[in-house]
Amino acid sequence: MEQERKGKSLSHKPVLLQSFLEAVAPVRGLWVDCTFGAGGYSRALCKAGAEHVIGIDCDPDSATIGREVERAERGKFSFIGQQFGGFDKFVDFAKRPPLHGVIFDLGVSSMQLDSAERGFSIKHEAPLDMRMDKRGRSAADIVNQASERMLADIFFCFGEERASRKIARRIVSRRASAQIASTTDLAKIVEQSVAKTQHRKTHPATRVFQALRIAVNNEFEQLIKGLVAAEKSLSEGGWLAVISFHSLEDRIVKRFMRGQTRALSEVDFQLSIDRHKPRFYPINRRPIQPDIAEITANPRSRSARLRIARRNARPASEEIDFGVIGAPCISGLERV
Ligand SMILES: C[S@@+](CC[C@H](N)C(=O)[O-])C[C@H]1O[C@@H](n2cnc3c(N)ncnc32)[C@H](O)[C@@H]1O
Question: Domains of the chain by range and CATH?
Answer without folding.
Answer: 2-111+218-333 (3.40.50.150), 115-216 (1.10.150.170)
